[in-house]
Design a protein that fits this description.
It is a single chain. The protein is α+β, with helices and mostly antiparallel strands. The protein has one domain. The strands form two sheets. Strands 1, 2, 3, 4, 5, 6, 7, 10, 11, 12 and 13 form an eleven-stranded mixed β-sheet that branches. A two-stranded antiparallel ribbon has the order 8-9. A hairpin with a 4-residue loop joins strand 12 and strand 13. The longest helix is centred in the C-terminal third of the chain and has 13 residues.
């Protein structure tokens, strides 16, 4: 009989809607960036490559070196929780914002507007991991409120952009990012960057 763990290789994770992670060498192994959540450590995943790039730049300024990897190419076992009962990931969709300014830092980590995904099956972690209906619905609503209706095509397409266009998008995001300092509980909006049009959008939490 084939166990769920053995069947991982037959079901690449996040194959329906691509996601990206940050990972870097640590003691001869590939260390995947994770967040502390109520479900324990959870791999930080991004739908937008540009969002991942900004996170990468943030950590590079603090001496931590990462590269961006497709979540589907990462060892599936890194998504298994400590109890080995479920797959866990924190899908980072945007940043919290207050008074039109983006809050980048929360404690020792980056602040985020994210959806925690915990997927389990009867006998432990399932052999596949995709955005569930609830998560996808929230992601869709957030992008629709921001006017980014083609996000499903735009984000994966970015990987095929010429370097000059990609550099422009990253530079534009950084130059137009107004950073503020506020408690995340005081933030009322989520900030997303539209890489095609080079502008930030702010979506009310109440609309989500």
């Amino acid at each position: 009989m084939t166990s769920a763990h053995e069947s991982f290789c037959h079901h690449p994770f996040f194959s329906e809607i691509p996601a990206f992670v940050l990972a870097g060498p640590d003691g001869g192994q590939l260390q995947v960036a994770a967040s502390r959540t109520k479900a324990g450590p959870a791999v930080s995943c991004f739908l937008s490559p540009l969002h991942a790039m900004l996170e990468l730049m943030y950590w590079a300024c603090r001496g931590r070196q990462y590269e961006i990897h497709h979540a589907s190419l990462i060892d599936p076992k890194v998504f298994i929780n400590a109890d080995r009962t479920a797959l866990v990931a924190e899908l980072r969709i945007g940043w919290p914002a207050h008074d039109g300014k983006i809050v980048m830092q929360s404690g020792e980590s980056t602040a985020t507007c994210a959806k925690l995904m915990v997927h389990s099956a009867e006998f432990g972690p399932p052999p596949f991991f995709e955005l569930d209906a609830e998560t996808l619905d929230q992601v869709e609503r957030m992008h629709e409120r921001a006017g980014m209706f083609a996000w499903r095509e735009t984000y994966p397409d970015m990987l095929q952009w010429e370097q000059a266009r990609l550099n422009w998008a990253v530079k534009r995001a950084v130059e137009t990012m107004e950073i503020g300092s506020a408690d995340k509980m005081d933030c009322t909006k989520a900030a997303l960057f539209d890489p095609e049009f080079g502008q930030w959008h702010f979506v009310e939490f109440a609309d989500l």
